[in-house]
## 1
Amino acid sequence: AQSVTQLGSHVSVSEGALVLLRCNYSSSVPPYLFWYVQYPNQGLQLLLKYTSAATLVKGINGFEAEFKKSETSFHLTKPSAHMSDAAEYFCAVSGLNDYKLSFGAGTTVTVRA
Amino acid sequence: GAGVSQSPSNKVTEKGKDVELRCDPISGHTALYWYRQSLGQGLEFLIYFQGNSAPDKSGLPSDRFSAERTGGSVSTLTIQRTQQEDSAVYLCASSLRALNVDSPLHFGNGTRLTVT
């Protein structure tokens, strides 16, 4: 079964600083990979998805993620954090023929003024 | 159109009572999922509906949990004889087709269930 591991349950960054959220997947074949964001009292919103067309994926709100097969990683980054980026972020994986997403435990981001 | 709608947004119930949680998916979406989000944990898959196919119930934690989807649209998740460990946020999601990279999941805002 596909699975992902998110390193770090909490990340605190200063406004304007780099945001880096780590995600490693376990899969013997290229999977579908996603990052979702959850703002307080809301559902999950898709940030970006890996399509295999490009290893560097750009998403909404200035986020991007890089697929590295050699490292089985799909880390999420944003060059300059904004206060509105405070939320919980989930990495998720699905096999090519699966219809279920497996989610990581999530990383809560706080942004310091 | 409108997004995935869930009701109620909050539900407080006494231990032992039955509860029903409702999900209205995006119109035209054939796939519907229920996930559970417990405090400090990730999302746990519960059940999946796709068109007229038999649902995948492999994630339901016990026989107290059941779900149905009427007319390929609205879905109801029922928890019988609720227990305190059932307290969680229950999230519904839909997608245009079975999940793939071109048909990602769209989530509702969830129902926060508290069992006292």
## 2
Amino acid sequence: QQQVKQSPQSLIVQKGGISIINCAYENTAFDYFPWYQQFPGKGPALLIAIRPDVSEKKEGRFTISFNKSAKQFSLHIMDSQPGDSATYFCAATLSYTGNQFYFGTGTSLTVIP
Amino acid sequence: NAGVMQNPRHLVRRRGQEARLRCSPMKGHSHVYWYRQLPEEGLKFMVYLQKENIIDESGMPKERFSAEFPKEGPSILRIQQVVRGDSAAYFCASSPLFRKETQYFGPGTRLLVL
């Protein structure tokens, strides 16, 4: 059973546009939701994370929106740049156990000049 | 300020051989996690270790796979008698004691089984 579902699988955005990636989770006990950015041949790098006690978190051009009742969260990349072209993974975990992350299947983002 | 280190970065093995993947966590981190990433897929949890202890190995295949994190030295993921289906990228992550949810990933080891 896929604990975290991510969409779309791939996304093409014009430079300066907004990229939006969506995730939905199953387990209401999850309490930490990070987003990771991965470039080809590299390991995932933590981008931004949110806890369910807030509905939005912004860091620079990256914003997470969180909807607890719908069990959904999304990543918004404002003013998308070609350098943002990468694969993005959402994840969820139970922070008090310190155990595994459940990852989405990834979104390949391409920002065209 | 070295991050999580993994070696080798690339490993080629023939079917039936053993693969040993090493992971050195970030300085001050006491938790290590191993994940496997198949092509075009997300990361799948394998095992979570602290020094000298396996905390959660619910994602490990029941046979041929083992992991350790000794008191001294790196964490080791060992795959015995490799098969073609073991070809994947294996990532290690580490986290500090009091921020276990903050996992930092290494660059990965890409295993190719011929």
